[in-house]
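re: that chain from earlier
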Amino acid sequence: MNSSKKIWIACGVGCAALALYASARTLQKSKATRPPIIGVAYIALETNDMAAARKFYGDHLGYAALDPGPSGSDVAGTYFKVNNQQYIEVFPDLKSEMQDRMPSIGFETTNARQLRDYLASRNVTVPEIVKADHEGNLSFKIKDPEGHEVEFVQYMPGSLQSRHFGKLLPDTRVSKHMIHVGFIVQDRAVEDALFKDILGYQMMWYGGKKEDEVDYVDMRVPDGSDWLEYMLNVHNPSVKTRGVMNHLALGVESIQPPYQTLLSRGLTPPAPPKIGVDGKWQLNLYDPNETRAELMEFVPMRKPCCSPMLKPPVMKKD
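^ sequence. v structure.
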């Protein structure tokens, strides 16, 4: 009898069970599929002046505040509601001038547990389990290849957000849709390995300050109209530059009405609206801690620089 056969006989039922378990796990991994990722859920920002943040996002931009902590308390932060599925979350945790103002971004999925299992099957580091977070949603966080914290959220019945569905949506909002979030990226290829190859984000457009340069890459979520913007060619940024690059964008049909509204509310942008290299009218605003909150028209008014723009699906947020 050869030695391998002897070992198998000696191992007996235990080895058979182990082999069966391993086979089942391999089959489970091979069958893991990605559930829909449908849009931007939130951007988290940090401030050292909550009163100033409330004035900017509340009084100037016109968003209603949802406090996740005790009533009237800023200890746990304040969520400014863009629409039923999107929030600008501001926390009073800025302790240093050099601290990054954008600690995390979030995307909405229809099935957080399935997405966790799918990412695990693709060798992405994920939590062992997905459980209800402090807001009552199913969510989990990962780190992308460059250390950005990215959360995936499945809104659940009875959660903080679900309880306020249809509420806190005043007509004062300058925009009803956060169309993208952006952050500094050093290596496009390693980010693509996660967002494009594994998560299925699709390149929507790329361009730069010059025709032969790529400074911005827009990666659209696989099952919606929102996108993540890679901000390339940024090295050793100042606080101001980091705030320009780590940003959020609010979509508008036309730039002039909200521009005039902001002026009437006492907010004077550093420059009037302009047409960006993507062919869209935009207006750059900055919150009290230098994070850029740009207003951007949904549709280019002239041909975008550098590459064609993938037409997004029609999606309604509110």
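DSSP finds seven helices and 16 strands in the chain.
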